[in-house]
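Researcher: Please generate the 3D structure of the following complex. Treat every line as part of one assembly.
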Amino acid sequence: MTSKKTTPLYQAKSIKKYFPVTGGILRRTIGQVKALDGVDLDIYRGETISVIGESGCGKTTLGRMLAVLQKPTDGELTFDFGDGLQDVAHLDRGEELAFRKKVQMIFQDPYTSFNPRQRVGVAMDEVLQVHGVKDPEERFSRIKEACEMVNMRVEYLQRYPHEFSGGQRQRLAIARCLAVKPELIIADEIVSALDVSIQAQIVNLLRKIQKETGLSFVFITHDVAVARYVGHRIAVMYLGSVVEILPAEALPENAEHPYTIALLSAVPDMNLQGKKKQIALQGEVPSPIDAPSGCAFSTRCPYVMDICKTTRPTLRIAADGKAGHQVACHLETPPTGE
Amino acid sequence: MIEKPPSTAKLMISNFVRNTTGMIGLAIVFLVVTSSIFAVQISGYDPNMFDGANTSLPPSTTHLMGTDQLGQDVFSRVLYGGRNSILIGVLASFLGNLIGTVLGAIAGYVRGKFDTILIRLSELVMTFPQLVLVLIFVTFLGQGVANVIFIFAITGWMTTFRLVRSEFMSLREEAFVEADRAFGFSSKRIIFRHLLPNTMSPIVVAFTINTAIYIIAEAGLSFLGLGVPVTTPTWGNLLAAAQAPVVVEQYWWLWVFPAAAIVVFVTGVNFIGDGLRDVLDPRSRTQVKEASFGSTLKQKIFGSRKRNA
Amino acid sequence: MSNILELKDVNVTFNVEAGQLHILRDVSLEVPKGSFLCVVGESGCGKSVTAQAIVQLLPDNGKVESGSINFYDQGEKLEINKLEKFGSRMRGLRGAKIGMIFQDTLSSLNPAHRVGRQVAESLLQHMDISKDEAKTKVIELFKKLGIPDPERRYEAYPHEFSGGMRQRVMIAIATVCEPDLVIADEPTTALDVTIQAQIMTLLKDLQKSAGKTFILITHNMALVSEVADHVAVMYLGRVVEYGNVNQVLRNPRHPYTQALLQSVPSLAADKNIELKTVDGQTPSPADVTKGCEFAGRCPFVTDACREQVIPLLSFGEKHQVRCIRLDEKGNLPKLSKAAAND
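Model: Done. Output below.
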């Protein structure tokens, strides 16, 4: 058990993803969008890691890398199938299926994540067929089990996607993933399109499933409070890099990166008015095409020093010395805010 | 135990039955097709039988549409000619659509070099006037029903290709396709099992439109003497017989009836196309309104103003 | 303080294929001059329709069936719902006296025109000034709204702006004619939180320094807690609770308001406690029966709730709640354990 806790299930090492920017009549590459610029992330068994950040920070790209829907420009992706970490960025068709059985993904928009012309039950069944579950009885019992887990009546599976509400569809998407019995589920903004009361249902459900099945989750969201509530650990991203990784309980008081603190202070919260550290951010996120050469946050950081503009900080143990708290910042003592 | 909801096919059929335009079209097409199959029985004359005693008779109770210069019964020939014309229209349209759909689906989903080559090829074919292209092919392959079908298909797949390709290009960005890929579905399965059913409505509509176009094209081609050999009756060949000014002026029944047959059948096919579009894609009627909502809202706020440049 | 806007028993219906939908039911609101009112609720509660009704911009199939909407322009009472929808009087109000900010900034700005001109246009429309004066005024306003490099930005096109900057331009359009009342419909929903914080600070500054009145339509309770003076909570076309921000957010009385507040995790939330959820879905306005709209999802429901139109009851100083299950002190009955755990 201890070894399982200490060796990651899935490891991403200095992942880079550059998209070429073309221009001119000849469509030549004139620059690169650095969507991910060297991201390290370890995902352990039985944990939920929340990835937060604002639009354009690369969190969705990171999710797609982890699901190997796109290949990274550079870096290593290794997954533990049971006998140590293996490369998963370059798989043949058979290995890919084996990987996809272990790692599932749920998408943001519940309205388009099911084929509109396919009954949801058929859609679920098809996934199991592709993954080699030949016995129809077993497929049905697995689907039934998954539906029970998300509180969805099996009779509803006869329906078409448009006959469900957004929240129900998101539950069905979760059930479809669960039926495959994966070890890791990557959830990309799955509650952001829902009304708050429905969002609460899905959040509670995810937490329940995580507790009962011991699955690992990567929970990508822009909502810091939901991320803290769902995740065991939080990875904060800014402009293509992870700037801080911290245990969820450390939020909001013990955040150390100036960007994390600024992000937290911008989140409206009725229970914390006047109690948070305040860093008001000016301006906007720079374009990832001409990202700063040093620390990505150096152009907006109120605590910027000379070294920040030239040298990129890497993740190091945070000043509070707590296990699992890492921060990528040149400041030796964390800022206190205003 | 579990109440089974009505299937999509059943729903569509019941919607189509309620669609007046579509049903009128279907009735016309059904009538024309069956009567051309039973041409001899209905008209009571063999379309190829010469009757030297009764040449160039105007319409009468014995010969409903009169007879031609060789004494052949025009009614029988119009009905019989429908067989070949309809066969050419439907088969050519089907083949062209099949080629266009398969190529368009793959090109739109896979993109890359394959797509670039095909799109250039389709542009090349399209920049050529189709008639000129058809003439070139006819010269090489010769006349005949099969050849005409082949030529129409090979010169007419581009519209469907472009249509399907653009549909696939937008569909492949949908979240459910992304989800399919995340589940490890093969490209073949995604293209043909998941995306194709979502493109069916424009394809079906394109099929009906093309059928109508090819029937008219066959008539035009045969009129020029380049389509089906004159010995085979088609609507086009019947019209071609009316080239002489004297026929146009004096033997009006020789060209009015085949022309009317074409008009009636093509109208029927177009009606079916309209009906299918309504049934298959109810969204097509509302989309435009939603898309322009934002700007109209703003216009409402400040009222309509003079547009000073 | 005197009111700038009063809604009294406003009913709005929409004609749809299936018949008539009753979208707003007896909505009454009072907006004191210089205050910041937030209208909150989930999608389909009628909060945006309320805003549209105020400026007479309901979709063509919508109609104010009954009730009155009164706007006070320097003491002069204007009955908005009696004005002609696109008459000169109404057009003089929109933009000039009542400014509006929408969520979708991209489609609200004309992509073919320079941004500065679009802002100046509403000035030229409503005021008797020259083009040069208008330009100077707009650039000044851009500066005030924190748009960097305003002279250059004046000549730029909407697509050259980020979402946050476009929203600032929308605010510029809404406020350039110095309206007394600004209605903002989910202005920051499409924006990141740090940008949202900037925009909200801006709106709050405009309220405090320029004395403008704001109506903010939003679904975000936490945001309400940071900016609002008064709060109206809507559910399925009705205002179910109204009061000042402390009354509604610190001491919510309606079961729906309570559930809504507890369903959003706070940054300080105890992770061992489950989020409160509301069972089921918001019903469609077509399915509403005569009783309480929330009855189908309410844990406190009794037969009486389903049988009558629920009156708006007052507690304390102008704290109004539409619920008959409250006792004289305004407390809900205790739920039995079994029901609470359900």
